[in-house]
Amino acid sequence: MREDLAAMADAAADENVHAAVRQIGTLHDARHVIFDNDTRFMFASVFDGSWDTYIDDFAQTVVGARFDKVFSHCEGFPGVTDPGAKDWFVSQQEPAGVFVSAYPDLTVQQIYKDQRVDDAFQAVLDTAEFRAMLDNPANAELVGTPAFQKLLEEASA
Prior knowledge:
Blueprint: H1 2-11, H2 15-24, E1 27-35, E2 40-47, H3 51-59, H4 62-71, H5 85-92, H6 108-125, H7 128-135, H8 140-143, H9 146-156
Antiparallel strand pairs: 1-2
């Protein structure tokens, strides 16, 4: 299992894996942990939406094969595309005692959008045209508003 996890970690940089995760569009993060002298294994992930959709989505991408490779080391795992896979996962679950999120109201899709908007806004901020617009007296009223000042302040943070 350690070898398979190491190979999976190396493959995490694979563009196909990133494309699959973006296609699925609901995974915030995932981790695999081997502990208790290599006798126990934990998989933990944070995702948007329902458990059923999450597993179905993974099973239909290259990530499903990676799930199969790692979880094949677990007793009784039927394979991620097997109709009994969801029941197997549920039978292995343990509830979290505490879960804290830095951004509980943001979905993965909203975060992706925020990144795109920030990239576009940063590109605008870096132009001479934008700097000239800030200095143009005709725009003084807009530039002077608290909302616009806050936008500029946040952009420079």
